[in-house]
């Protein structure tokens, strides 16, 4: 939320697209609470828009534009990740600067992505599966947390939205898509 506010300092109303039940109840509650706390600190009003399935995206984006949100923040979710092309296309159609938890959205035209590398997460998961197939007990495997997070900014999208991304943010980006 802080990165989105830095990119869009005038944003005061941010729509949050989320898929309830994407993860366990505690994880979802923690994401909601942390996002709300960050928004309060940054002086941002949140509009939570939930979707249970892809056929609800058009309705969800209509909600975001009435009243008009200044930006879109998309929670992580396997379903939302699978529908990333459509979400990015709807963001473009509604001219909503958008922030995502994965670079893959930004590669398709989203504005900002910040999150753990999905490729690295899959690689680590494959290593765990290989260990299990070799006889290791899943309970004996260490719990791992991501250590690398990528910040990716799409300048082409910024220009299409008539946005100027602050130099301070561009300098911290791991990748800037021209």
Put the structure in a nutshell.
The protein has 178 residues and is of the alpha/beta class. The protein has helices spanning 2-7, 25-42, 57-64, 78-82, 84-93, 103-107, 118-133, 155-160, 167-172; strands at residues 13-18, 45-50, 71-74, 98-100, 112-116, 149-154, 175-177. The chain has a seven-stranded mixed sheet with strand order 2-1-3-4-5-6-7, sandwiched between helices.
Q: Give Rg in angstroms.
A: 17 Å
Per CATH, which architecture?
3-Layer(aba) Sandwich
| SS strand fraction | 15-25%
Question: CATH first level: which class?
Answer: Alpha Beta
- CATH H level, superfamily name: Response regulator
Q: SSE order in H/E notation? A: HEHEHEHHEHEHEHHE
- Largest beta-sheet details: 7 strands, mixed
Number of strands: 7
């Amino acid at each position: 939320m802080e990165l989105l506010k830095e990119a869009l300092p005038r944003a005061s109303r941010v729509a949050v697209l989320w898929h309830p039940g994407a993860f366990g109840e505690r994880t979802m509650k923690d994401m909601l609470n942390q996002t709300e706390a960050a928004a309060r600190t940054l002086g941002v009003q949140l509009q939570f828009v939930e979707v249970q399935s892809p056929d609800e995206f058009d309705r969800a984006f209509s909600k975001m534009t009435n009243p008009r949100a200044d930006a879109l923040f998309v929670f992580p979710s396997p379903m939302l990740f699978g529908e990333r092309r459509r979400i990015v296309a709807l963001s473009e159609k509604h001219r909503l600067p958008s922030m995502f938890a994965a670079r893959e959205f930004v590669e398709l035209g989203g504005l900002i992505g910040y999150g753990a590398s999905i490729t690295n997460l899959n690689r680590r998961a494959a290593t765990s599966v290989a260990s299990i197939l070799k006889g290791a007990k899943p309970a004996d495997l260490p719990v791992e947390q991501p250590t690398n997070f990528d910040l990716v900014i799409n300048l082409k999208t910024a220009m299409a939205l008539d946005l100027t991304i602050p130099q301070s943010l561009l300098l911290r980006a791991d990748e800037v898509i021209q």
